[in-house]
Amino acid sequence: MMTAYITLLAAAEALSAPVRPAKLEICALCHGEDGRAKTPVAPNLAGQNAAYMERALHRYRTGQREGDGMNALVRSLTPEEVSELVAWYAAQNPCGPQP
Ligand code: HEC
Predict the structure, then answer these.
(1) Is 86 exposed, middle or buried (0-12, 13-18, 19+ CB in 10 A)?
(2) Rounded to two decimals, what is the model's pTM?
(3) Alpha-carbon distance 31 to 44, whole Å?
(4) CA 10, CA 61: separation in Å to the nearest integer?
(5) What separation in Å is there between the alpha carbon of 42 and the centre of ligand 1?
(6) Closest Cα to atom 34 of ligand 1
(7) CATH class held by domain 20-90
(8) How confident is the model at residue 8 (pLDDT cuts 50, 70, 90)?
(9) How far is CA 4 from CA 58, 68, 71, in A?
(10) Minimum CA distance residue for ligand 1 atom 38
(11) pLDDT tens-digit profile of 56-97?
């Protein structure tokens, strides 16, 4: 009984933890692997609302929003890659103000 419960917990954990996106290294240069920004101009993404990030990235793709290098970057990714990255950053622990 206990074993079954633990197995279930482990399965739930595996489901909720997003896979490490293949393209994470690119974004990590500015936004950090854990969503804590590495440059003074890049925003923190840790724990940011996933729907909001999807919409922001869609707007960079279509040019409705201009954002330094973000427009060209997003256009170099497939929508699936973008969704993986959004899921990753949304799952990171939110952080306080940038240093
Ligand atoms: C060269 C540095 C750099 C890289 C690399 C980079 N970003 Fe950004 N990102 C920025 C900057 C600067 C902004 C703010 C641009 C603006 O004013 O709209 C931004 C904005 C964003 C936003 C919108 C945040 C908000 O609060 O509206 C998201 C989401 C985002 N980036 C995701 C990503 C993802 C995913 C990647 C990897 C594919 C990535 N970024 C790579 C610099 C970068």
Answers:
(1) buried
(2) 0.88
(3) 6
(4) 37
(5) 6
(6) 27
(7) mainly alpha
(8) low
(9) 42, 50, 47
(10) 27
(11) 999 999 999 999 899 999 999 999 999 999 999 999 999 877
